[in-house]
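pinned: reference chain
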Amino acid sequence: MEYEIDVKNKSSKQKINSIWQELKDAVRGSEADYTEIKIGKAIFLLAVPMILELIMESTFAVVDIFFVGKLGPSAVATVGLTETYLFLLYSIGMGLSMAVTAIVARRIGEKDKEKAGISAVQSIFLAVLISLPFTIAGIFYSKELLALMGADEWILEHGYRYMQWMLGGNAVIMLLFIINAIFRGAGDAAIAMRVLWIANGINIVLDPILIFGWGPFPEMGIEGAAIATNIGRGIGVLTQLYFLFKGVKHIHVLRNQIYLHWKTISAIIKTSLGGVGQMIIAMTSWIFIMRILAEFGSEVIAGTTIAMRIMMFTMMPAWGMSNAVATLVGQNLGAKKPDRAERSVWITGVGNMIFLIGVAVIYFIYSESLVGIFTDDLQVISVGAMWLRIVSYAYFVYGWWMVSVQAFNGAGDTITPTKINFVFFWLIEIPLSYFMAKTLNLGYSGVFWAIFIAETAVGLFTLWLFTRGKWKTVQV
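pinned: its structure tokens
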């Protein structure tokens, strides 16, 4: 009997040590071939750093809105309105990132590291070029852009400088997106994690210092939040470039690869068009949604903005697992293992669903307390809490939606999600939001319910389309 207990204890210790070792490998970065090791281990090694990377990113978003919230509802609304335009930038950056991740993952899966490095360089050139129009718009037309979105007098007088900095310095955001996509596609997710920890750690430290004027620094208000973001992310980009040219476990860019390679640029653009279109459709639909909500006052925009930041924070583990799927699908298709790619999606989907159901329960029970952390305005709390409760009903579907979309993107099939987004977001979500808010006189709650209906439907449809398996035949 004692011998059996001894064996069981020894076995438990070995399992704990094994998990702990794998966790250290995931954080440190593993040289494992993700097309050969067990799928569960591959998901774990990729997902852990991606989750930690995104948690840090969302932690900054939450901390940022916490400090900005001390300046009042109009300051929070400034962030929300600025983000509607940044969403356009994010849509392009994320769409391009999908293509970069898919192409780099495919080249790594094919064991062609030289072409992976060339693809990385070309994607950086594209990122810089794309950022220029946003820089010009932000520096010279920030007031006009905010007025177009229905900004109040305080925002037009004081908040426009926030937009000037955020759009004017957008190149650092774009480069952060793209270079981390290179690392993730290569399987070096731990590097992407470290970069965002550095960038956002600096942001968090500088935020209160520049907003409130701590120590020798002047009080800069909401403008200080934008400056802190640019400094933090700028240092993050310099760190990325250091790692990329120094060489990491799966990818190394050489100096002789720094030249324009039009064939590769063409392939990236072609693959990214679907991803960019996919994200632009989703993000611009949000611009229309925010424009409808703006008619109900700054408190409604503020409540929605805070709720969205809370969502970003709590959904990061789910996004991390979904991003791991994109890498696994790309690399396994490159290695001619489509069945293994599909199994990784189903295994991750189950984990995602379980996690998000737990998050939904927390939203439903503690919605007002969560929003109350960031503001003491009762109207703002009421709006944000309502949004979280309504969203919680659909989270079991969101888990599968996120994974199946990333499976398409990881395969390089960015066109299919684009078509889906066009139908469900532009043809259903926007008209339904207006109809429920205005025609049915449900106000902002009608917008929230319309989003719930549309996004539940798009999640179920995307999962069904994934099961048909055409994504396995895509070539990039």
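why pinned: The mean pLDDT is 83. The chain has one domain: 37-473.
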